[in-house]
Amino acid sequence: MVQFVHPSTEDITLSGVLAALADPVRLKIFMSLMAQEGCMSCTEAAPDNSIPKSTLSHHFRILREAGLIRTIKRGVENRNVPRAEDIDARFPGLLQTLLPLAAHEHRRAG
Amino acid sequence: MVQFVHPSTEDITLSGVLAALADPVRLKIFMSLMAQEGCMSCTEAAPDNSIPKSTLSHHFRILREAGLIRTIKRGVENRNVPRAEDIDARFPGLLQTLLPLAAHEHRRAG
């Protein structure tokens, strides 16, 4: 059985968070998870259907190892929840600043 | 003569800025430039003397191409200034949030 690795809150680094969110696909995935109440499977949180499953898994692993999301096995599916409270505890104000800027950037590009 | 490439303010992307600042060495360089009045040479802005010159050049190129700094040739030396106003115009509040968090993280690590 796959064991998912989640850093403890105090081990979350600014570099890890910035690197994880620097990728536009990962940023979109994280924004979808933040916008959603409850949790989402990898497929539900994917920005579009054209992304290969292995690429998606890679993106979710980076988000998980950066401490941005928590992945929970539910039967045959993996469910993902954003660790907003942990990120807020480590880096107060970061998500509140970053996410609106990212949403604005996204609308501008679209 | 070397021509430095600087993106126009509107071409600065959030991904580029986050990726540039996700590297701890580049983040330190940028923080030094922000803390300094006026401008600094690559050597002055380097976090320590152990970083090879080619590695430093690479870091400055990434910062420059992300739109975070402007490099100006002054005689035989390259001087670097942070483009804080341009970043503020593109992403209001980003540097004001990120730099204190980075300074705190730096003190915590040190």
Please state the average pLDDT score of chain A: 91
For the secondary structure, the number of strands of chain A is 3
**Over all CA atoms, what is the radius of gyration of chain A?**
13 Å
**Structural class category of chain A:** alpha+beta
SSE succession of chain A: HHEHHEEHH
Number of helices of chain A: 6
**Uncertain regions of chain A: pLDDT < 50 for 5+ in a row?**
none
Proportion in helices of chain A = 55-70%
Major beta sheet summary of chain A? 3 strands, antiparallel
Strand adjacency order, main sheet of chain A: 1-3-2
The oligomeric state of the chains shown is homodimer
Report strand % of chain A.
5-15%
Biggest interface, and residues per chain?
A: A-B, 20 and 19 residues
Distance between the termini of chain A: 40 Å
Overall, the morphology of chain A is: globular
Structural summary, described in words:
- Chain A has helices at 14-22, 24-35, 42-45, 53-65, 84-90, 94-109, and strands spanning 40-41, 69-74, 77-82.
- With 110 residues, chain A is α+β, with helices and mostly antiparallel strands.
- Chain A is globular, with a radius of gyration of 13 Å.
- The model of chain A has no long low-confidence stretch (mean pLDDT 91).
- The A-B interface holds A 13-15, 18-19, 21-24, 27, 91-94, 96-98, 101-102, 105 and B 13-15, 18-19, 21-24, 27, 91-94, 97-98, 101-102, 105.
